[in-house]
Design a protein that fits this description.
heterodimer; A: 151 residues; alpha+beta; three-stranded antiparallel sheet; 42% helix; B: mainly alpha; 2 domains
């Protein structure tokens, strides 16, 4: 008998959908293609970027995102935790330990870490942005490399 | 992550604002959000700009969070509640006695409470408030009830009582049935 195949598209905009697919009549964990989650929203991209090198707590992520974007993107607590909720559901980040950050105060804070999937997704997004920048340069919207070097 | 110290007035205000998020979201992130707010409030001057950014962030994120939690079933239940409310208003417009209206409200709210017991107060509110709203709105469009509410439209707010009783009767029946099935 021919089996029905249904695939459930996952995206970080639909956190309630499980990362499973029904295949051949039973539930199986689905291998997620990072490209499927692109393009990322700017807050999600910068949050992932801030977690690439080290685990951070919420306030640490906020500070790092502001630094990365030279203050252009200031995440408020609502935006930050709304994104983290969707990213946790999509398996891009995971909660790490709870500990105090001696640079701030002695309060215990929950740290977040990037997952393997999160690393793949941020890499894929960076490559996508790189292609976009290349295209912008080709259309003379940005200075080309040689002109930059000459300056 | 608990903190024992006294909360400042700004932390208390922010704590109240967080009630706009869903209960599940608050369970997961409230403490962390308050902590981030507290740290930020200590690091920055709490001027107009600070509160403006907090309020903009709160408005946008609450709207996103609430919209993302809307389900098709929830939408259908809301539409059904509105339909019952409009029908109750129609019946009320054409009857000089309240029994028929109460029957429609009671039936609609009972069914909705039975089928969607979670946060069932929403169904009671939608069905019951449709009545005074219809009494206020209809004359603007030239529709006048045969039997206006006396002494004024506020009297139709009394529909809230049968609506809540019927809704929570539905919820109780559902709970008893579920427990009986589980036992």
């Amino acid at each position: 008998m021919r089996s029905n195949r249904y695939s459930i598209r996952i995206g970080i905009d639909s956190p309630r959908q499980p990362r499973y697919c029904i295949r051949d009549g039973y539930m199986a964990r689905r291998t997620v293609n990072p490209e499927e989650l692109l393009p990322l929203t700017p807050p999600v991209f910068h949050i992932l970027l801030s977690l690439v090198q080290e685990e951070r707590h919420g306030y640490g992520i906020m500070l790092d995102v502001a630094e990365q974007t030279e203050g252009a993107l200031q995440l408020g607590p609502g935006t930050l935790y709304g994104c983290l909720k969707r990213m946790l559901a999509a398996g891009l980040v995971k909660p790490s330990s709870e500990r105090a950050d001696p640079d701030i105060d002695d309060e215990r804070r929950r740290y977040y870490a990037i997952t393997n999937l999160g690393s793949k997704v941020v890499r894929a997004e960076a490559a996508r942005l790189q292609r976009a920048v290349k295209e912008a340069k080709a259309r003379a919207l940005l200075p080309a490399k040689r002109a930059e070097a000459a300056r | 992550m608990s903190h024992q110290r006294e909360r400042t007035w700004s932390e208390k205000i922010y704590g109240l604002l967080l009630f706009a998020y869903s209960a599940a979201f608050r369970r997961e992130f409230q403490e962390e959000m308050e902590q981030v707010f507290r740290t930020r409030a200590r690091a920055q001057r709490q001027d107009f700009g600070f509160w403006k950014s907090i309020l903009v962030d709160w408005t946008v994120s609450v709207a996103k969070e609430r919209l993302s939690s809307i389900t098709l079933r929830g939408l259908l239940a809301s539409a059904a509640a509105l339909a019952f409310g409009i029908f109750a208003a129609y019946v009320d417009f054409h009857n000089d006695e309240v029994q028929a209206t109460v029957l429609v409200i009671g039936f609609g709210c009972f069914i909705l409470g039975l089928s969607r017991p979670k946060a069932a107060w929403r169904w009671a509110l939608i069905v019951a408030l449709a009545l005074p709203i219809a009494h206020w709105l209809a004359p603007q469009f030239g529709i006048h009830p045969k039997f206006p509410v006396t002494p004024n439209n506020f009297a139709s707010l009394i529909a809230l009582i049968p609506a809540f009783i019927a809704t929570y009767s539905g919820v109780i029946v559902r709970r008893v049935y579920t427990e009986a099935r589980g036992a």
